[in-house]
Amino acid sequence: FARRLTAAYLCEHGPLPCGACRHCKKAAADIHPDVSLISLLEDKREIVVGQARALRSDVFVQPNEAERKVYLIDPADTMNDESQNALLKVLEDGPDYAAFLLLCANAGQLLSTIRSRCETLTLPPEEEAVDPVLAQRAEELAKQLLDGDETSLWSFLCALEREKWKTRELQSLFLLTEEALRPFLHAHPRRCAELLKLLRSLEDACVFNVGAGHLLGALCTGRPLP
User: Fold this and answer.
1) Sheet containing 98-102: which strands, arranged edge to edge?
2) High-pLDDT (> 90) share of the chain, %
3) Residues 52, 17 contacting (CB under 8 angstroms)
4) Higher-confidence residue: 210 or 20?
5) Cβ atoms within 10 A of the Cβ of 119, count?
């Protein structure tokens, strides 16, 4: 997705990347002079402030070939606070030709001042084989949300918490529960729509490393009444 978005910024024909112009081809081959990747140095576990300052200086150099320059920061959630603070001004007041793509698995690791200067695009997890245990739990959760009383739902969610689910696993559970609810939309349109909205909000909250207990508690207290 980042590659296609980068090509879209540079493409001669846009707004979608044509894949045939010189800019699209160079971007696809990772040889475009106006595309810069800021990533972890070989001996570092963080993107350090020196890298951020180098980016900040390079931004004000005009593009070489295209009309725009693209900076990919990946993984952006490894930037320490000093690095992030070094980028604040350029994210807000950088030249119009500069585009910044901050790729990360955990947006909650970014400072709120960074997030407020960005447009957040949340992508679904990569397609992979579904864990049968996870699928079964999703079916059970969907049934509890639709038909269970408050006591049985609370007991079910407490049991889930005792299994010590990780936040990412809960995000996958909520996604599968959405799919399990969709067949009931015709019979219970309003209730299912409200449940789907609640699950989506909890999926979004997962990127901020919220504790499993808080997420499951919010699911229980936020469930619409029958």
Assistant:
1) 35-38, 69-73, 98-102
2) 50
3) no
4) 20
5) 5
What secondary structure letter does DSSP report for 46?
S
Note the pLDDT of residue 53.
95
Distance CA 175, CA 195 (A): 12
CA atoms of 67 and 9, how far apart (whole Å): 9
Total-model pTM: 0.57
- What mean pLDDT do residues 185-213 have? 85
Q: Are 52 and 42 in contact (CB under 8 A)?
A: no
Q: Does residue 110 sit in helix, strand or coil?
A: coil
Residues found in the chain: 226
**Residues β-bridged to residue 73:** 38, 102
Residue type (1 letter), 59: V
What contacts 130, CB < 8 A, 6 or more positions away?
Answer: 176
Give residue-wise pLDDT tens across range 49-77.
999 999 999 999 999 999 999 999 999 99
CA 42 to centroid of chain Cα atoms: 25
Distances (CA, A) of 211 to 11, 46, 191: 42, 24, 26
Interaxial angle between packed helices 81-93 and 49-58, expressed in degrees from 0 to 180 and rounded to the nearest 10: 20
